[in-house]
Amino acid sequence: MAKELSAVKTLVSDLGPTRAEREELYVHFHKHPELSMQEVDTAATICAELDAAGIPYQRVGRTGIVATVENGAGPAVAMRADIDALPVPEASGKDYASVVEGVSHACGHDFHIMSLLAALKAFNAHKDAWRGTYVGVFQPAEETAEGAKDLVDNGVSKVLPKLDVYLGQHVLSSLPGAHVGTRPGPIFTAAASIRVKVFGKGSHGSMPELGVDPVVLAATIVMRLQTIVSREIAARETAIVTVGSLQAGTKSNIIPDDATLLINTRAYDKGVEKRLHEAIERIVRAECQAARSPRELEIEYYDVYPLTRNAEEETAKVRAAFDAYFGEDSVDIAPQSASEDFSYVPDDSETPYVYWGFGGFADQEHAPGNHNPAFAPDLQPTLDRGAEAAIVAASAWLCP
């Protein structure tokens, strides 16, 4: 471990001298966010940085990038950074806030980009400190669950070497600032969004007996869905069913022809998720029948995220490296109810993976959550900590 720590210190030694330069580049990414599958300028900037550092890379799909640093025989480690932003106007008050109207890095993916760039440059600059292959995967469209699938569909497995482990991280407000936390087993939920359209029969509001009211139908569905978690899922299990949108009608005295519900589910177990979806479909169909709905309902699943389950052995290896380097700042993290498309890539090649979080706010008590318009983590020490975590985790394999 002493030899490994010495190698890690060598690899992180450039973080101090390059701090101002890295902060300037971070500000650029933060001010110029791009939405999912539209990260053209972001990808171009990443490629320019890789070109300047002499790091070879391949484009995968329209905006995906796989950069590879080879350094002799040894393990192969990949690290992923998501690069897209959100359709959220920024309200952080930062003097480097987004200049793109209605779009911001309200989930912190700009920190992920910078962490991976710093790690790639560190492993490229200090090849005397490690052996093997280090791969950086810059992934588009995590926010819409399209990006990892897009990499797989565009043949990322043919670009990647045979990997020993696939790594990922996320800046969070649920961890104390500068702390790093991971856990074996489920760490992010499986999730799905479901669009349900139910049909009625339009009528004048003064003559409801001549129609079938889809607003009342949708309302009964919303209330009945609340019984799934409370009455069909065991107390020892975790599940979430949320109706985030209910849209119907245009005027107070018109009974409309249809109503649309947008439903979201979360679970830490695929079996539980299956039961949620079966229950939702059963309830919707039964309520439609009870309401005399004149047409078959429509159900569409979208924004589907897999369960993120950290590999036991590999997570223990990362945690030991974190403990040795970060000391008391290396902590256990509770399972997060958010979701990730991260695992699609390692699952495609049957590669074990480890995912962790790092804290972004010194004032954690008042920190906004991810996706909040005010979410903009402290520039430092968050920028350095993300880079350190990426380097330390990979070093558990690459620095014998």
Question: Could you explain the architecture of this structure?
Answer:
The protein has 400 residues and is an alpha/beta fold. It has helices at residues 2-11, 19-31, 40-53, 109-125, 147-153, 156-159, 214-232, 270-290, 312-326, 344-348, 382-398; strands at 57-60, 64-71, 76-82, 132-139, 165-172, 180-182, 185-188, 190-199, 203-204, 239-248, 254-255, 258-267, 298-305, 308-310, 330-332, 353-359. Strand 1 and strand 2 (64-71) form a beta hairpin. The termini are close together. The relative contact order is 0.20. The mean pLDDT is 97.
Q: Report the radius of gyration as a whole number of Å.
A: 24 Å
| Average pLDDT, all residues | 97
Structural class by sheet pairing and helices: alpha/beta
Topology, number of strands: 16
Detail the poorly predicted runs.
Answer: none
> What is the oligomer described by this structure?
single chain
* Helix and strand sequence: HHHEEEHEHHEEEEEHEEEHEEHEHEH
Give the fraction of residues assigned to helices: 25-40%
- Give the CA-CA distance, first to last residue: 9 Å
Query: What is the approximate shape?
Result: elongated
Strand order of the largest sheet: 1-2-4-3-5-16-6-15
Strand content: 15-25%
InterPro entries: Amidohydrolase, Bact_exopeptidase_dim_dom, Peptidase_M20, Peptidase_M20_dimer
Organism: Corynebacterium atypicum
Protein name: Amidohydrolase
